[in-house]
Design goal:
The longest helix is centred in the C-terminal third of the chain and has 16 residues, at about 375-390. The chain is of the alpha+beta class. The strands form five sheets. Strands 1, 2, 3, 6, 14, 15, 16 and 17 form an eight-stranded mixed β-sheet that branches. A three-stranded antiparallel β-sheet has the order 7-11-8. A two-stranded antiparallel sheet has the order 4-5. The chain has 14 helices and 17 strands. It is globular, with a radius of gyration of 20 Å.
């Protein structure tokens, strides 16, 4: 592990590392992937948007290995429905001329994939020595009295072992002061050290990062990650050209906002102004492929470096920091290789396998026009196709 004090500034060129080749579009064979399996992947993904009850209105898939994008496909619709009719339980389709086709350039509401960017921003501070992995949150945020009283640590926030419950109804608070008071007073609901996935972990981490840097999270993500990597289509909303999400209304949702497009879907992130540690980012499949490639290349992309290799390894090695590791329920057979990744409630996911330098980005607006039971089989199938493409190459 390198000295934290000597680490170069995140997002800057240099650090004594060679430039990592940038992504290019090429054949599966040039990527070291089996073309037959990737053809099956594309076929499977296209089928997800068909039929009376499709998995999603639209889907984008990007997959590759090393510096090669071997698959970049879009299917279905970025905007297909006008509303959801709760009386009949049916999706109300727009006239054909008003629908918006899905494109590989369509931005998506990333939902919880935002957590990965917050985690990278935190690990950048670990590398700089301005944040301690086992430091108490209360040392940075003494006014967060419950976290301070229970000795919640930065590591626990990044590994979802703080004991904090999954979420708080911040969207029901009358103003920002009430939302902050609720978050400051929230105590762990289970024993710290036990795994419990929680949006609150990344919200607290956001407050820690903003306190120690004096910059807001959107600026940290832009200056430390997306700008140096050239991810020009990635940022916090609004994002008017994004794929539509939900006709968000009670009782199935937690707020009455109507059909959403280009504004964050998550109710708490919306209540917080669209910039939150757990949700709020929008991005495209190509930009997320760049993000994956940078991490698979040890934190570098072209001449830019956002993290050193040892810190990337720390993030992607079990139990993972921000990233989930070896989870077959959404990675399929890629999990067998110890892959890392995450999912988002709106239908987004990404998986990257350091052992083979393989990546898979699957973006879908599964909540358009209304959220329903989460079906992970398509994610599992896609991950398995990519894993077998590596074996069959």
């Amino acid at each position: 592990m390198p000295s934290l004090a000597d680490a170069p500034h995140p997002g800057r060129k240099g650090g004594g590392q060679l430039s990592a080749p940038k992504l290019r579009v090429d054949t599966p064979e040039r990527a070291g992937l089996d073309p037959a399996e990737l053809r099956n992947l594309v076929r499977d993904v296209r089928a997800l948007t068909r039929g009376p009850e499709p998995w999603a209105a639209g889907v984008v898939v990007v997959a590759g290995r090393g510096p090669v994008i071997a698959v970049e496909e879009a299917a279905g619709w970025a905007v297909r429905y006008a509303s959801y009719d709760e009386k009949t339980g049916t999706r109300v389709e727009l006239p054909p001329e008003q629908r918006v086709p899905m494109s590989v350039r369509t931005p998506f509401d990333l939902a919880s994939l935002t957590k990965l960017f917050t985690a990278v921003a935190a690990v950048q501070q670990l590398e700089r020595g301005t944040l301690g992995i086992d430091a108490r949150v209360g040392a940075y945020l003494p006014e967060f009295r419950a976290a301070r009283a229970h000795d919640v640590t930065v590591r626990q926030l990044l590994t979802h072992t703080s004991g904090l419950r999954s979420e708080l109804p911040l969207y029901d608070c009358p103003d920002g002061a009430a939302r902050l008071a609720l978050l400051r007073a929230e105590e762990p609901s289970s024993e710290p050290g036990e795994y419990l996935y929680s949006d609150l972990n990344l919200l607290l981490l956001q407050h820690v990062l903003e306190r120690i840097t004096g910059r807001t999270l959107d600026v940290l993500v832009r200056d430390g990650i997306t700008r140096p990597l050239g991810m020009t289509a990635t940022g916090f909303g609004p994002c008017p050209d994004a794929a539509a999400t939900e006709d968000q209304r009670r009782p199935w949702a937690k707020a009455d906002r109507g059909m959403l497009r280009g504004v964050v879907h998550d109710e708490n992130a919306w209540a917080l102004g669209g910039v939150a540690g757990h949700a709020g980012l929008f991005s495209t499949g190509r930009d997320l492929a760049v993000f994956c490639r940078a991490l698979l290349a040890g934190g570098s992309y072209g001449p830019a470096r956002i993290l050193g290799p040892d810190f990337v390894e720390l993030m992607l090695t079990a139990p993972g920091l921000g990233f989930a590791v070896a989870q077959p329920w959404f990675m399929g057979e890629l999990a067998e290789r110890g892959a890392a990744g995450h999912t988002g409630f709106t239908g987004t996911s990404l998986v990257l396998d350091p052992g083979t330098e393989t990546f898979l980005v699957l973006l879908a607006n599964t909540v358009h026009p209304r959220r329903g039971a989460v079906r992970n089989a398509p994610r599992v199938g896609a991950g398995t196709r990519v894993a077998r493409a590596v074996r069959g190459a």
